[in-house]
Amino acid sequence: MAVALLAKMPGLGISSVLILHVVGNMDRGFGAGSLVAAFWTAGAGLGAPLQGRGLDRYGLRKVFGLLVIAQSLFWGMAHFLPFPALVATAFIGGLTTLPAFTVIRLALANMVTEENRHTAYAVEAITTDVAYMAGPSFGILLASLASPTVAFLAMGAMLFAAGGAYLLLDPPLKAARPAADGPKPRLRSWLTARMMCALSITLATSIAVIGFEVAAIGTLQKSGQLQWSWLLLVAAGLASVAGGFLYGGMRRPPSVFAIGALLGVFCIPIGLATEWYWLCVLAVPANLLVAPALSASAGAVSRLAPDDSKGVAMGTYASAILVGNVIGSPLAGTVLDHGGPAASFAAFGTTAALIAGLAYLCDLRLRGKGSDNTPGARSEQLESSGAPQ
């Protein structure tokens, strides 16, 4: 978990550091910086399933050996590149970034017994919350106190250290062994209709999380209270951590679909807040469900995937989070600009809740028909995702 946290922090802070590097070192605007960050994100979204497939077939050390070399080259050289070259190499950097989220979830699926797995995933989701709070803050702090170049190199050093630690530890990835010498698993063997339902919850959760961040910060900025944004983000992060602990301690956790739908619904009333302190208070119920939603959907994806495809399935899970970010951020921002805070929170909250509700209805119908014939689909009941079987 400690190594995973070390790898997640720079992964979540990279966008901020890239933007500050472009703005501070290249004297370009935030639009140009956001373009570089977008290319990084696009590369990471495409690379996650490919890296997962590599973990399935070749194991951790072969894949991470190549990725650590690629990341060392990117972070060691990219800050010298002119802007057009940086845009192109940012995509390659994202494509070859360390799959920290995928590896830790694969390791937990193999190292933890099934009855305790939802607790393990909850703890893993808590480390993600800590990384969300610490990663961007660490990068921005370094860029402010030292320089964007120092922050740039520090992020690269953290990724290099995390990659080296993974190579030394070589955590057991169950999917990497049986598939190494066998035929390549077919897409239909793991990307079933019920898998799509589970990934839809991941998508809905990501839309709600990024939508909350954009709408909340925008609300504070429009009301002249931006100086309290740090307190809001800390309150949201602590609420998510608390929710993760509560979820991890449950013997029979609630439905993954219910968690996802409630997360979206609880985001809607946050838009009624006009003062920063009410924003902090109303943000607590929704953020209590963030870690449980991520944990439950990760557990569902892991259980539905066959052993020889868990890596690519968890990589696709990571891509679903990125796709949710791509959808949720402009949705919340555009509605905020044209309709105000209440409309923004209602827009992305309703979207997330509807996706979760439709996923539940789809899964309910599929279970009734018994349409999926994979072992994971036969055994897993997503309506009680995470509960002991």
From TrEMBL:
InterPro entries: MFS, MFS_trans_sf. This is MFS family permease. The chain crosses the membrane at residues 5-24, 30-51, 63-81, 87-108, 120-143, 149-169, 190-216, 228-249, 256-278, 284-305, 317-336, 342-362. Gene3D superfamilies: MFS general substrate transporter like domains. It comes from the Bacteria. Keywords: Membrane, Transmembrane, Transmembrane helix. GO terms for molecular function: transmembrane transporter activity. It comes from Streptomyces violarus.
